[in-house]
Each structure stands twice: as C-alpha cells, then as structure tokens.
Design a protein that fits this description.
675 residues, six-stranded mixed sheet, 21 helices, globular
Length: 675
C-alpha cells in the first residue's frame, strides 16, 4: 500500500501597518516560489492590536478552509516602530548617561530625540582600552523613586561601553532591582563606537519597548486562542527573521521591519534582481534598491524620522508620504501648492465609518458657516492606549487630555488658543490622541477610486478644504472633485520625487541634496527653460502597497522607466515575512593597551592575553559561541556560522605593529517550525 504524501507545511504571514493589518497563508508547494493560498486585510486597531490581527487572520483561515493546527510557522513584520519614530511617538523614558557631559547631548541630534524626557548624568565610564573611571551611581539612585512614577522604561549608555560594559551592567541591575521597569543598555544593541549615537539608538529602543511588547502579546494571545501552536517570528530591519522574544528585548531592530519584509516579498513576487522598490502605506513611503537580488544595506545605520541610528537595516529612505498623509496648503502663496505629510491623520472617511454621525454632523455644521475656519475638517479622539502610558503629562496636557474622549470632537470647539494647539500636538506625539482630517484616502473616496470607508464624510471634508482661500482671496478649488484630483496628482508627483531623490542618494549625491531636490522637481514638472532637464532610472520600479495601483498608475512617465505592480502587492510585507531566514551576528574587538598585552572585549566579558594569536583565537571562539546562542534565541536550530576578521596594523622600521582587530561571526538558517 502506497503511503499518503505528507502535506506541505503552511506558513502564516502577518504585517501590522499604521492603517491596515495584512495576513497571508502561504505554502511551499505549488512551484519554485510557493503559492499564496489566501490573503486578507483588516484595519489596524491601535487601542487593541489583537482586534486587527484576528480580523485579518480569521478571514484568511476562512477563505482557505484551513485547520489552524496545520500552520507550522507564524511570521510577522510591522511598520509600527518606523511610524512611531517618523511621527515622534513612543513611551516616556529616562536616559542615563555614564561618563558623558551635558554638551554631548548636542551631538547626533540626541537632544532633539530626547525632547522633554528626563536625563541623569553619572560619573564613570571607560577609556578606549576598557580601563574604568570611578563609577558613582548615587545621583541615579536618588532619582529613581520619582522617575519610576513618570516613565515607562530606561535607556543606559556609558562611555566606551562597547569596550567594557561593566558600568552599564551596574546601572541596569540597580534600575531593575529598584523599579522593575524595562532597561535597555547600549552595549546590547551595538558594538560600534560613537557614544551619543549609541545613546540615541538606546533611547529610541527603550521608547519602543511597550509598543512592540503590546504587538507581540496581542499576536501570541490570538494564536493561543485559535490553537495555533507554531513559533512566532518577527522581521528585523535587515530582512532577517528573529523570534518574538528576541524582538521584545530589541524592538529598535524592528524599525524598517515592514519595508524590509516588502523587499523580500517584492523579489519573491517579481523575480527582478535589480529594481527600485517603493512601498506606499498609510503613513510612509519607503524606497530602497535591489541589487543582484539582495537589498542594499546601510553600513552607517538606519535613518528614520531624521535620526541616524546604529541599527543595521536595509538602505531604506522613509518619507512621511502616504494615503493618510495630512493635506495642507503652502503658506502665503498667491497660488498655493498642495502639501502632503509628514504627519498621518485619521482619514475622515475612516472616522466617519467608525463614528458615524458624530463626525458628519460636525463637518456639516462647519459647512453651514459663512466663512471657512482654520480648524475646519479637523477632529480629535483618544487612541485608547492604556492609561499608564499617559504618565508624566504636564498640567495643560492632562487638562486637554481629559476633555478629549472616545468620540471625535471638532477642534474649533475643543481648542480655544494657539497654545492649546501646541498642547494637542504633544498629545499626538505621545501616541495618546489621533487627529482626523482630509487625506489622499479621502480624495480617492470622493472620486470613487476607493470605496471601503465612508465616502459621504470624505466628500464633506473635501468641500471644506476646497473652500479655503488662496492669496487672492479666491476658493482654491471649484468642487470636491477638483481638489481631490489635485491631491492625488500631488501624491503621484511627490512619489516620483522621493524615488528619484533616493536614486541620487544611492549614486553618492546625497551631500548635494538641495541641488538634487531642485533638479528632480524641475525634471518631474517638465519645467520649460533654456536648460531642459529629463531624468530616468536605469531599472524598473516595483510598486508595493494596497494603494500602489492607484497612486503609481502615472508614475512610469515621471521616472523614465516602467513600474511593475505585482498581483499580491497589497500583502507584499506579509508574504516577505514568511520566506526569510534567521540571521544574527556577534562582534569582538582585540586591542593592545600596551605593548605585549592583548585585550579581548566580547559580549559582556573583557580578558587579557600575552599573545596576539591566542587573543584572536579566543575572540573567534567567543563570537562563534555568542552567535550560536543568539541564533538559537532568534529561532533557528540549524545555523551556519561564518567568521571574518579585520586587522588594523602599521609598519615601523620594517616591523609589523598590531593596533586592533575586529572579529565578526554571522549565523544564519531557516527558522524552526512546529512538528
């Protein structure tokens, strides 16, 4: 009797974006690239992420008629961390700087990232060879009782902690013992030098922990409720997969997670080895380059929201441009341009769908007014996050937050001064409040090119926006349809600009950004002049995102090459999440503090050797063991490990002089699946 063939394992991919949560069910069977069995979308529900996840996944399971127990791996990508940094959101955290001076906050935009969050300076730190200065944590100890009441976590960065993490470990242990709150130490995230940028990366990581923790907990809770006993993986910013537990401790590594997954998905769907990939979502447009089938990585670290981090990620440029971008007018112009982003608003069509007459009645009231108001078409509503995340509000912030409820309120009734407008913006930045307003998604509803939300609310918003006045005192558009066409045209044009600017940057012209931007604008506009300009890409564009077929329809003529929009473009992130590999690394440094002494700094240990060869061998052994352990923690039992060493030496009077060695181990393998 012939045995029945064993069924191919099923893989569930989930992408939690700023607006939508996508799900895809994929099987390795069905050809070289496998087969998408079902796909679905649901609105991302930021107040309770499990609602959006269950909506998308349940729809996929129902479409495919699949027994949940047949799913052997669940993999998730997310743009939540990216969006939070672009929009300036995240929990309030305390930064602990050991061995640094207050002047160091001015470097690498650390002070801008810190904002109004508290910072504590402590004496201590190490020198370049790992030799310690005297540590004094008494100031931190005294501040902890007050800090633990007003922050959601701590970020600790010590001077030269990558050469000796002892002082960070002491501070981390003290904070954990006294407060029980999450603590991120800088040496856990990066082995690179550059204290202020490492502090910045650590600060952002601490700020994102509660957000990613809620996402993972929501997903794990949903999977348990559906009896899906499969490992849960998360896509990192370099496209690699790591276990959910790994991602919970290092959420900063999930910045650009969604875009990285989309690159993997784009390559998988199109088979194109060389392309510019542009992924348009609700909040951001992410542009990156595929070369020879692999995404280009940024050796300097990912830049998101204007902050250069130390996170290794795809060389992705993220722009605050999407279907839910804020629509505004250029100030002071006779014929003002349409401006989009970078802030995301809740589209009025979506607010109308969720809250009905509470939204439309306010918009109708504003339309009845004889003259347009500067706050027309804007409403505020609480996001529904846990109350503990509202800790540390100022008096003015707390008072306004109390006035804003779960039902949208018109800003012209809510705010009574410009100062309150600034207060509202701070609440939005903290992720406590959403502002609803007119967006490109609303314009698409007005024109019948999108029909999943409340078109009536969208039209009211378009009417309000169209009657704004230009520099001559005239209405800026004759009808809701006219202004909506202008908004969608502006979005396509701006999409071409960001794609071409990315191409210039990849060609090494980023330093001339202002000139490049002006040239791109002139070329895209086909501006008449003595010097006629045209610009073209050397490779096609792969357009990703649910709205790509709409917004990229006229893109090809603007970028001078074809635009490919794959069939499953709407779930590229979720698909990319299930076809990747686990990939982690470990680093060690070997220095020579004095002649004949070789110091190995690896992981959390520092050891001295009297022989260079012995020190290098120890470093290689250490990084191999650390990489193997991290690979197991990251979710693979079959990692292959490669080790590379880079030496800095000099020659003095014909003699080789050792300066430093950098040893890196990279472990990679397919994620473990349920048996």
């Amino acid at each position: 009797m012939t045995a029945k063939p064993k069924p191919s394992p099923l893989f569930l991919g989930i992408d939690t974006g700023g607006t939508y949560t996508d799900a895809v069910l994929w099987s390795e069977a069905g050809g070289p690239s496998g087969k998408v069995l079902a796909k679905a979308k649901a609105l991302t529900t930021r107040h309770d992420l499990a609602v959006g996840i269950s909506g998308a996944v349940d729809a996929v399971l129902e479409m495919a008629g699949t027994n949940p127990a047949a799913i052997k791996l669940v993999s998730m990508s997310t743009t939540l961390a990216t969006n939070a940094l672009v929009e300036g959101q995240g929990g309030r955290v305390a930064l602990v700087m050991i061995g640094f001076a207050e002047g160091d906050l001015a470097r690498d935009r650390l002070k801008a990232a810190l904002g109004t969050d508290p910072v504590v300076f402590c004496p201590g730190g190490h020198d370049v060879h790992g030799n310690a200065a005297k540590l004094d944590l008494s100031g931190l100890e005294a501040a902890l009782p007050e800090l633990e009441k007003s922050v959601s976590g701590f970020a600790v960065c010590a001077y030269f902690a990558t050469r000796n993490p002892a002082h960070e470990l002491s501070a981390r242990n003290l904070i954990r013992d006294r407060t029980g709150l999450p603590v991120t130490a800088s040496h856990e995230l990066s082995a690179k030098l550059g204290g202020p940028r490492r502090a910045l990366t650590t600060l952002l990581n601490a700020r994102l922990i509660s957000m990613i923790d809620r996402l993972v907990a929501a997903t794990e809770g949903f999977l348990a409720a559906r009896n899906i006993a499969a490992p849960l993986m998360v896509v990192r910013g370099d496209g690699a997969l790591v276990s959910a537990a790994f991602a919970r401790q290092r959420p900063i590594e999930t910045i650009l997670s969604g875009p990285a997954a989309s690159l993997v998905g784009a390559r998988h769907m199109t088979g194109l080895d060389d392309a510019v990939v542009s992924d348009i979502g609700g909040t951001t447009t992410d542009v990156a380059v595929l070369d020879k089938g692999r995404p280009r990585l940024d050796p300097e670290g990912a830049t998101v929201g204007g902050f250069r981090t130390m996170v290794e990620a795809v060389a992705m440029r993220t722009f605050g441009l999407g279907g839910d971008s804020e629509v505004a007018l250029e100030d002071g112009a006779l014929s003002p341009k349409i401006l989009l982003g970078p802030r995301r608003l809740v589209p009025l069509a979506l607010a109308g769908l969720m809250h009905g007459e509470a939204v439309t009645s306010e918009l109708e009231r504003q339309l009845r007014a004889p003259n347009p108001g500067r706050m027309d078409g804007r409403l505020a509503v609480r996001t529904g996050v846990p109350e503990r995340l509202a800790a540390g509000l100022t008096g003015a912030e707390a008072k306004l937050y109390e006035l804003i409820g779960a039902v949208p309120q018109a800003l012209d009734r809510l705010l009574t001064s410009n100062a309150q407008n600034a207060t509202l913006n701070r609440l939005v930045s903290r992720g406590l409040v959403h502002v609803a307003g007119f967006t490109p998604s609303d314009a698409a509803h007005v024109l019948g090119r999108q029909a999943n939300w409340d078109a009536a609310a969208a039209r009211l918003g378009a009417e309000l926006f169209a009657r704004r006045r230009d520099g001559r005192g005239q209405f800026i558009a004759a009808s809701p349809e006219a202004i909506s066409e202008r908004v969608l045209t502006a979005l396509t044009r701006l999409s071409a600009e960001v794609i071409l600017e990315t191409a210039f940057a990849e060609d090494g012209l980023d330093g001339a950004a202002t000139v490049a931007h002006a040239l791109v604008q002139r070329a895209v506009d086909a501006h008449p002049g003595i010097a006629r300009l045209s610009v073209a890409l050397d490779r096609p564009v792969i357009g990703l995102g649910a709205s790509a077929p709409l917004h990229y329809a006229g893109l090809a003529e603007l970028v001078g090459n074809r635009c490919v929009v794959p069939q499953d473009t709407d779930v590229a992130n979720a698909l990319g999440a299930v076809v990747g590999q686990v990939r982690v690394s470990a680093e060690a440094r070997v220095s020579q503090p004095k002649e004949g002494l070789f110091r190995v700094a690896s992981g959390e240990s520092v050891r001295d050797f009297n022989d260079e060869a012995a020190a290098i061998a120890a470093a290689e052994k250490d990084v191999r063991a650390i990489a193997a352990g991290r690979a197991k923690d990251a979710g693979t039992d079959s990692a292959e490990i490669e080790i590379a060493s880079e030496f800095r030496v000099s020659t003095v009077e014909g003699q080789r002089m050792f300066i430093e060695a950098h040893v890196v181990a990279v472990a990679s393998g397919r994620p473990r699946i349920a048996v």
